UniProtKB/TrEMBL annotation:
Keyword Protease: yes
Family in the record: Belongs to the peptidase M8 family.
Cofactor: Zn(2+)
Superkingdom of source: Eukaryota
EC number(s) reported in the record: 3.4.24.-
Protein name (record): Leishmanolysin-like peptidase
Active-site residues, Swiss-Prot/TrEMBL: 172
Annotated InterPro entries: Peptidase_M8 (IPR001577)
Residues binding Zn(2+): 171, 175, 241
UniProt keyword list: Hydrolase, Metal-binding, Metalloprotease, Protease, Zinc
Cofactor notes: Binds 1 zinc ion per subunit.
UniProt-recorded Gene Ontology molecular function terms: metal ion binding; metalloendopeptidase activity
């Protein structure tokens, strides 16, 4: 009996208590950074405030100091001759000068994460579509990142045409916290090789799976109605983003929709699992995530044929059913004969209301790349559907590499689908 009590007392002394606080981000910005459009700075501030309600962070008992070495490895802002400003966005909202030459004490400054804002002109100029990018600074032992860098491209013409600035900063802040950028200590299924089948040909491709996705996989199985789904497919071998083709307008795909991007249980669960060591780093507000998850329509109940097989196999499996988000062979024949005629797609709401939309089939000559990250080679519409060989579409493609050259509905890949009701599913018209 005495031995048992003594053992329990010893165990109690080594248990570490979790201490959680709302994510409280400060920005460190150089004085000479190019002026950004007002909507950019306003949305950045709005996201930082919103994330206080969405994400909580583990507070570790160790030194909350971000060392000069970490800052020096992460950003050029550590230099003593750089004039810097620290912006806080909590109830003590303030802005004042700060010196990073000896490091940064998060506790003393009343925050638990610091984002170093900078402009990397080389990277911005090399990618004419880049608006921003982010990554965590180096880790100290098994403690979550205390800081990250945010690279902003100050090209006003790019920002002017982009509507989803709010979602962009949500996306980049998750990367700064470590989403898709932390290597796990161990991994389960990392990838799968399979055949991408067409009507009379096939290609061998390879899909990579996201790390830290055990819980996310359970939700994805329910969302896609595919109980045998083996992993959360990543865009490429870097595993930084979810697959654009599979997850569409989920917040953590590589190409953000110009309309709404949803922070669902998929990416929230991956963030919650992201850690090194035994202690959890992040928690998300499940009630707020649920609201966005319910509105996430892309992929809902599309089945294993969509998420694990080729688009041709998916279309073939939908006999007497809608082939959304794709056009089928008959749709494309109609497009070749009557280019202006729309394709009708219907959604059924959870209240029984039938909503009808007029969409159009996509067809394009030019491609940004002829191979997708999975290794899939470009294939024309007539190679996918032999009946199109004599049509005007014979040498055209259904989409670009990011959508695996599949015959997508134009409004899907051009971000023109809005106002789909919560929990609505695609049905035959």
């Amino acid at each position: 009996m005495y031995t048992r009590i003594f053992t329990e007392l010893v165990l109690l002394t080594i248990v570490e208590c979790d201490h959680w606080e709302p994510l409280n981000v400060a920005l460190v910005t150089p004085k000479d950074i190019p002026r950004l459009p007002a909507k950019v700075t306003e949305e950045m501030r709005g996201v930082i405030l919103e994330m206080r309600s969405l994400i909580s962070v583990q507070i570790f008992d160790s030194d909350p100091m971000i060392s000069k070495t970490v800052i020096k490895q992460c950003t050029k802002l550590w230099k003593p001759n750089v004039d810097l400003y620290l912006d806080r966005f909590d109830e003590m909202e303030s802005s004042h000068s700060v010196d990073l030459s000896e490091g940064f004490d998060t506790a003393r400054n009343g925050v638990n994460f610091v984002l170093f804002v900078q402009v990397n002109y080389t990277r911005c100029d090399s990618d004419n579509g880049l608006l921003a990018s982010a990554a965590p600074c180096s880790l100290s032992e098994n403690i979550r990142p205390l800081s990250g860098r945010l690279n902003i491209c100050p090209h006003e013409d790019r920002w002017r045409a982009f509507k989803a600035v709010h979602d962009l900063f949500r996306h980049e802040l998750l990367h700064a916290l470590g989403f898709g950028l932390i290597l796990p200590e161990s991994s389960s299924i990392k990838s799968r090789k399979f055949q991408w089948n067409y009507s009379d040909r096939k290609q061998k491709i390879k899909s990579e799976y996201m790390d830290f996705s055990k819980v996310a996989l359970n939700f994805a199985r329910r969302h896609f109605a595919c109980s045998g789904l083996r992993g959360i497919e990543a865009e490429d071998a870097d595993k930084t983003h979810l697959s654009e083709y599979i997850f569409g307008n989920e917040l953590m795909t590589p190409i953000l929709s110009n309309e709404k991007n949803y922070f669902t249980f998929i990416s929230a669960s991956i963030l919650e699992e992201t850690k090194v060591g035994t202690r959890q780093w992040y928690k998300t507000n499940r009630m707020l995530i649920l609201a966005e998850t319910k509105s996430y329509w892309y992929g809902r109940k599309w089945g294993c044929e969509f998420v694990e097989k080729s688009c041709t196999e998916y279309i073939s499996s939908r006999t007497n059913q809608s082939t959304f988000p794709f056009c089928n062979e008959n749709d494309l024949l109609q497009l070749s004969l009557y280019p202006s005629n729309p394709k009708m797609v219907c959604f059924l709401t959870n209240t029984g209301q039938l909503l009808k939309f007029d969409f159009h089939c996509n067809a394009q000559y030019y491609l940004r790349a002829r191979t997708s990250p999975t290794g899939l080679k470009a294939i024309t519409l007539s190679e996918q559907f032999p009946s199109l060989y004599a049509s005007k579409l014979a040498k055209m493609y259904g989409s670009d590499y990011i959508h695996r050259f599949c015959p997508f509905i134009q409004e899907v890949i051009r971000d023109r689908i809005v106002n789909i009701p919560e929990s609505a599913i695609v049905v035959r018209c």
